[in-house]
Amino acid sequence: MINTGIFARPKRILICSCLLVLLFAEPTATASGATYLEARELPPPPEATLDDEVNINVKNFGDYEIRTGVTDSKVAVIAIHGGKIEQGTSELAYALSARNHYNYYTYLGVRDKDNASLHIPSAQFEEPAALAMVAQSETTLSIHGCSGAGEFTYIGGLDTPLAGKVKDALTEYGFTVLDAPKHLAGLSPDNIVNRNQNGGGVQLEISKGLRAQFLDADSSQLTRYVAALSEALGNRP
């Protein structure tokens, strides 16, 4: 069983400007004495064929994987509870980044069961590659999953102008957007989505019912959702 405290924030964080160095080339000791697991290289995942320009780097740690796609964009799309933790979030993050050549990051639970225990709160998520990617971005979109059989999205984060554009675009495309409850609003400055160059990002909390639609083969819902987000982000480089 993984210790979800291994990414707890040290008193001082030195974020390397080079993402590739941060992708666990060597085990790294934390301030608490914990050591990051040694990764083994895997071939690119199947979804890499969606866009050959996004070169997916995969690190496997047994219980979880970290996948990144680094581009020259100032936009980062992240799914820190991906895979079997909050299903459908990695798929959406990749589809959006592949369409627009955005930077892509996901932390995926890959256990046969009990993936919920891999859930690290957003304000405590200190995985170095994720921190570095977000720190270098000007616009950050963090995709999460929440409970609910209905099809709806909560929108939060400290980038309120962009959050408004996302709400308008999703509504225009026929998706239901609701006011986020406080615990899902993503308003903490410590939340990883708000730790970019502008001090604020947008957090999406997507219901289980809607995420289930994203997992269908040739999902029109996923295509429309990506189109809405792409429109909201506009021509951001």
Automatic annotation (TrEMBL):
The keyword Signal applies. It comes from the Bacteria. InterPro entries: Gamma_PGA_hydro, Gamma_PGA_hydro_sf. Keywords: Signal. The keyword Zinc-finger does not apply. Residues 1-31 form the signal peptide. This is Phage-related replication protein.
